[in-house]
Amino acid sequence: MKYMLLIWNRPGFTEELTERERTALFGEVDEIMKELTESGELVGGQALADPSQTQTVRLAGGHPEVIDGPFMESKEQFAGYLTVDCDSPQRAAEIAARWPDVRFGGALEVRPIMDEAGTEM
C-alpha cells in the first residue's frame, strides 16, 4: 500500500538551529532517504518552496480568485512530502515518527493513497 507522508513544520525553524544542528538534521533526513531507497519503500518526495512563493485559489463572488500566499492562521506550514510503499500503516507511521522535523515541533500526516478506483477506502 502506498502512503503519503505530509510534512508540516514551523516556518523558519531551521534558521533557529545552529549550523551543527542543521547539518545533523539534514544528515538524518539523508540517512532515512537512503534507507528507504535501499529497502525499495521510497516512491518519491519533494520539499516545497517557502510559503511566500505560494498562490492560493479560492472561490470569491462565485468566481475563482488567485491570491498570494496561503496566509492561514497556522503555526505550521506544509513543507513537503514523501510517498512510500510499505506493508502496513504501522510501518508508514514508524517512518514518519523518525522524521527529524517532529522533534522540532513539526508533524507528519500519514495518509493512504487511494488506487484509481478508490474502492479500498
Automatic annotation (TrEMBL):
Pfam families cross-referenced by the UniProt entry: YCII
Residue stretches making up the YCII-related domain: 1-115
Source organism, top-level taxon: Bacteria
Family as reported in the entry's similarity comment: Belongs to the YciI family.
Protein's recorded name: Uncharacterized conserved protein
